[in-house]
Amino acid sequence: MASIEIRNVTKKFGDLTVVDDVSMSIDDGELMVFVGPSGCGKSTTLRMVAGLETTTAGTIMIGDRDVTRLDPKDRNIAMVFQNYALYAHKSVYGNLAFGLRMRGASKAEIDKRVREAAATLGIDDLLERRPKQLSGGQRQRVALGRALVRDPDAFLLDEPLSNLDAKLRVRMREEIGSLHSRIGTSMIYVTHDQVEAMTLGNRIAVMKDGRLQQVGAPLEVYDNPANQFVASFIGSPEMNQVDARLEAAGSGLRLMGDGFAIDLSTARSAGLSAGADVVLGLRPEHLEVLPDGAEDGVEFRMRVDLVEPMGAQTLLLCREGGTSLRVLISRNDGISRGDRVAMRLGDGRYHLFDAASGTTLKSIGTKVI
Amino acid sequence: MRANFPKLGSKLGYGALLALTVIYSVFPIYWMINTSFREPSTIYTAIEFFPSAFTWENFSTLLELTDYPTWFANSVIVALGTVAVTIVLSVLIAYAVTRLQFRGKTLVIGTMLYAYMFPPLLLAIPLATLFVRIGLSDTLLSLVISHTTLALPLGVWLLWGFFKQIPHDVEEAAMVDGCSRLRAFVLVVLPLTLPGIVTVAIFAFLLSWTDYVFALVMVSSDVNKTLPVGLDTMVGLYELRWGELMAGSTLIALPLFVMFTFLSRFFIRGLAAGAVKG
């Protein structure tokens, strides 16, 4: 086990910069998730940690070893690939044993560790099979087993669940989470799925266009996103973002937008100043639909354009003027298309971003007392 | 009942077509083997679909009167040499073309098969001139080089299809597991390419073993003749001794029969993969 440190790492392919001055440290035993859209540089960063890509600049440390120029085989890491990358010509046993054989382990040692890893992952009855005789979930377990058997300093997982169907993905996600808790080895997990990132990671690192946007605990990133991109990427359904302007209103401030006006109390507007063009960020689950006829505290009155029943919850698409909002509420069979609803910010939660730069001006992601 | 007639008719039609094709392909081979075991005196006097008297006489005469063992040994040396050089070169070239990025890569692969546009004789004459200049004329090595020139393009093209099929991840997984790039190539990539390698080996062997044109142009001394050219000399010397000729042909075909019996599975898989991956 070891910590991993990425210091000012940059990767260029010709003139194209795919990873731009990324720095972060992953604590010993921590599960760090790199998350971001396709092409954000998360997999390239992981591959640089693995030694499968060279760095253009920067340093990578595993424990107290500078591994920047070392070959993958000398880094003592294990990696799980997106398409499993199993050795099709070897049995499951051969796949699990391969890494140990390459490192010169004795036959008895190999056998002991292969059987232990297989038992941990519940694949001990598949050891004689070939990869093509396995289902997707079983192949994924073998790929995990191949990493597990080696007892490496760190596990690197590159979108390991993306080839599985939705149900199996959830199950394997839980298994990876519990596996990490049991073995306690540092892990870097790459995914474009923010749900996977939120549920698995001790911390998540959000990337975009090769740059690190924010690193933090999942709920910390959810509650206090560093910028408009992080705010929209983390959370499902996606955060509503509407243009607005801050204006003075008595002792406080008022947010004026197309079809709405929200008075911000002094507590809710501390640090903001009037006259700024902003983007108002509202999570669908943070909007509260008020009972019919409510007058006090109404901040939006909108027409329901679409009702999507999701079982325990109902997703509404509401419009007024040029503003449209997605609203996620507990199941409500009484609302239908064309109804007018009154809403307010639930527990006063909202986010404000600078309209020009997208950086966060204010984030009230938790309840204001 | 009436509806079954067309079905039965088409089945019979297919059957007849299949039987004709098999007869067309197999009968000459059967006739060759049949003739090689017949009494030499009966070959010109009667048409026999089954030898009336089974004899090894044609084989023994062939071995007594000709340099058959030398031709056979030459053919084996040239064919195995061609197979070895073709496999090594086509594996290396195909792997480089698959994994390395360089301008005109597709063009290199595309133009590989242009080698087969020309009749062999057109290539044989300039090659022979070249071998005379570098002192390789009338040697078995000149034949190995000539045959490799012909076998290599298809070998590269076929293996390129195989290497393309193997994800980089598999190689990278081996490197993370403790292999150098070369070791990952040998332990992981090559075994996965085995059907392709066997296909290339069979193709190269077949091409070399049955070649007549290059052997005729490149080799002049009796001691360096290969089987097809050696047998050809019998036609002139003994005025069409069909029995010995067919015995010699049967012996030429024998290694191919054995090879195809054991390796046809790989050959079909290899050709199919190459065909769809191109």
Automatic annotation (TrEMBL), chain A:
Alphabetized Pfam families for the sequence: ABC_tran, OB_MalK
CDD domains, per database record: ABC_MalK_N
ABC transporter domain sequence ranges: 4-234
Domain of life, per lineage: Bacteria
Record SUPFAM superfamilies: MOP-like, P-loop containing nucleoside triphosphate hydrolases
GO MF entries: ABC-type transporter activity; ATP binding; ATP hydrolysis activity
One example of a Gene Ontology biological process annotation: carbohydrate transport
Claim: ATP-binding is one of the keywords in the record: yes
UniProt keywords, alphabetically: ATP-binding, Nucleotide-binding, Transport
Cellular component terms (Gene Ontology): ATP-binding cassette (ABC) transporter complex, substrate-binding subunit-containing
Coiled-coil ranges per UniProt: none
PANTHER family according to UniProt: MALTODEXTRIN IMPORT ATP-BINDING PROTEIN MSMX (PTHR43875), OSMOPROTECTIVE COMPOUNDS UPTAKE ATP-BINDING PROTEIN GGTA (PTHR43875:SF1)
Family: Belongs to the ABC transporter superfamily.
Protein name as catalogued: sn-glycerol-3-phosphate ABC transporter ATP-binding protein UgpC
Gene from which this protein is expressed: ugpC
UniProtKB/TrEMBL annotation, chain B:
Gene3D superfamilies: MetI-like
GO annotation, cellular component aspect: plasma membrane
GO BP annotations listed: transmembrane transport
Keywords, comma-separated and alphabetical: Cell membrane, Membrane, Transmembrane, Transmembrane helix, Transport
Cellular localisation: Cell membrane
Lipid bilayer topology: Multi-pass membrane protein
TM spans (from-to): 12-33, 71-95, 107-134, 140-163, 184-209, 245-268
Coiled coil location: none
PANTHER family (UniProt xref): INNER MEMBRANE ABC TRANSPORTER PERMEASE PROTEIN YCJP (PTHR32243:SF18), MALTOSE TRANSPORT SYSTEM PERMEASE-RELATED (PTHR32243)
Family: Belongs to the binding-protein-dependent transport system permease family.
Protein's name according to its UniProt entry: Carbohydrate ABC transporter permease
Organism the protein comes from: Marivibrio halodurans
